[in-house]
Amino acid sequence: xxxxxxxxxxxxxxxxxxxxxxxxxxxxxxxxxxxxxxxxxxxxxxxxxxxxxxxxxxxxxxxxxxxxxxxxxxxxxx
Length: 78
Known about the structure:
Elements: E1 5-6, E2 15-16, H1 22-45, H2 47-63, H3 68-76
Antiparallel strand pairs: 1-2
């Protein structure tokens, strides 16, 4: 018995599309859409987040740190 497989997203394990029912897939997808909408609204209400991310990325591109987590800790450790 073969189960349908979906190409896995980069960095994840294979997953089985048939593990959820069609209704469960539909509900999960609806929740994902709702969450993305909520996230977009939040980012629009807080443009400073986008500025912080842009500044961090600019500094990371300029400095090209070997340890990005340590670099981020230094940037965001006020």
